[in-house]
């Protein structure tokens, strides 16, 4: 503790006071200064240890930030691999979709071809059946015209009308069947075209939707990576700035405390010197003669003590100042190292984030280009399928039209042949009818002559009426037999009808 001036006056006024008391006070002051210096050194060392711990913490935080940046990079790589896997799946699905579209179009084309072949086959069968029926009908008509010549007059008109009606009805049926087959072919071709267009539209819409979904997913992942990188960069900057500010504030506080402690150690020395001088002056004034030698010795001792105390205090202060400077330099070096490490970590994280963003941008661009290319390929495939389906439908329509025209021409040819046969049969019937009428006219004339001769000879042969009548009947039978021999093997019904009309005999 520091002695007051009153205490020094009382001590100097006591003649029996020993010179050990100022020495004890000086040693006590020296001990307190040493303790103060030790405590200052301990506090400075504690502050330096705290700065080292904070520097290590900042270094660990920088390492943690680097680890977080590495984990973010790994997450970005994982997201990239996942996006590549999804892109591969989309690519496989698009290829499978195109393959399915091609298979479906092939199946549709095969079905259309089979339908067309079946239609052509059925039309050919119907045409063959129609031709066979027409030929059979023509043969039947010819057979009827040949075998039933006696019934031609009554049934000729009806037969002609019936034949014409049947031919017209069959022609109408053939035209209706061909028209129905053509309409069915057109409907099937339209349904095939609509199915192909619908399938191509669905494939294009599905590919567009997949590309849009992949583009949206890539954009979201890119935005998320950019947000995470920005947040990481902001957090790293804030943590580095806070660590630098805290280290700077702590170093300033430590320097201020060291200056305060140095000022506090220097303050007791001045009053101590002033008190010693005042005490020496009082001692000199109280008993200069008696205490001259003692005062000289005491002054010398005090000067030695003061010199040693001052030297010790200056040494302690110099050591404390040197230690504070060393600790300050060390703290500054640690702070600079931490700041440089934080800056390097921030730069590394920023470069890593920029590289990740660049890679994500390149990956997204590549994915968009691949998706666009796949979409163009899908549209091209759908266009090819539509063109193929359209060409196949046009070919089927052309074949159906050609086949319908051929069947119609064949039916027309058969009808013309049947009409020609009917006309030839009618002409032959007319010829036979005219010949029969001529023969009937000859027979009628002969009958009239015979009747006239019989009238002239009736008076002559009345007696022989019975025998003459028999002879006339026999002659008439012979004439009838001769007339019958003159008629062809295939008589027409006009003969009997004409004979009935001429003779009135059935």
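Sequence proposed for the structure above (506 residues):
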């Amino acid at each position: 503790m520091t002695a007051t001036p009153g205490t020094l006056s009382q001590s100097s006024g006591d003649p029996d006071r020993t010179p050990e008391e100022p020495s004890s006070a000086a040693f006590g002051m020296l001990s307190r200064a040493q303790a103060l210096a030790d405590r200052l050194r301990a506090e400075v060392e504690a502050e330096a240890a705290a700065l080292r711990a904070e520097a290590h913490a900042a270094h660990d935080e920088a390492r943690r930030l680097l680890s977080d940046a590495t984990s973010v990079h790994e997450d970005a790589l994982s997201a990239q691999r996942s996006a590549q896997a999804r892109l591969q799946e989309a690519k496989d699905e698009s290829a499978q979709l195109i393959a399915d579209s091609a298979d479906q179009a092939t199946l549709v084309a095969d079905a259309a071809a089979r339908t067309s072949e079946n239609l052509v086959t059925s039309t050919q069968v119907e045409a063959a059946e129609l031709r066979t029926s027409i030929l059979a009908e023509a043969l039947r008509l010819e057979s009827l015209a040949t075998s039933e010549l006696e019934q031609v007059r009554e049934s000729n008109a009806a037969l002609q009308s019936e034949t014409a009606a049947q031919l017209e009805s069959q022609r109408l049926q053939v035209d209706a069947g061909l028209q129905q087959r053509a309409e069915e072919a057109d409907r099937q071709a339209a349904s095939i075209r609509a199915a192909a267009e619908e399938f191509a539209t669905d494939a294009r819409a599905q590919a567009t939707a997949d590309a849009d979904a992949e583009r949206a997913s890539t954009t979201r992942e890119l935005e998320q990576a950019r947000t995470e990188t920005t947040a990481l960069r902001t957090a790293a900057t804030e943590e580095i700035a806070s660590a630098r500010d805290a280290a700077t504030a702590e170093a300033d506080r430590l320097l201020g405390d060291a200056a305060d402690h140095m000022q506090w150690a220097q303050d007791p020395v001045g009053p101590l010197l002033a008190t010693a001088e005042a005490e020496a002056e009082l001692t000199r004034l109280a008993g200069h003669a008696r205490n001259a030698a003692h005062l000289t010795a005491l002054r010398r001792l005090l000067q030695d003590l003061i010199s040693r105390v001052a030297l010790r205090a200056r040494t302690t202060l110099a050591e404390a100042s040197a230690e504070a400077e060393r600790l300050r330099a060390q703290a500054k070096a640690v702070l600079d190292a931490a700041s440089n490490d934080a800056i390097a970590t921030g730069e590394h994280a920023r470069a890593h984030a920029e590289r990740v963003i660049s890679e994500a941008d390149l990956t997204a661009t590549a994915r968009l280009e691949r998706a666009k290319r796949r979409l163009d390929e899908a549209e091209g495939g759908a266009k090819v399928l539509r063109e193929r389906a359209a060409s196949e439908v046009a070919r089927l329509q052309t074949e159906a039209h050609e086949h319908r025209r051929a069947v119609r021409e064949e039916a027309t040819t058969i009808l013309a042949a049947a009409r020609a046969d009917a006309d030839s049969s009618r002409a032959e019937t007319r010829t036979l009818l005219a010949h029969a009428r001529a023969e009937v006219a000859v027979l009628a004339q002969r009958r009239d002559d015979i009747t006239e001769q019989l009238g002239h000879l009736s008076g002559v042969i009345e007696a022989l009426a019975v025998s003459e009548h028999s002879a006339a009947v026999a002659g008439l039978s012979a004439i009838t037999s001769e007339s019958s021999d003159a008629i062809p093997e295939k008589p027409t019904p006009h003969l009997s009808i004409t004979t009935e009309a001429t003779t009135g005999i059935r």
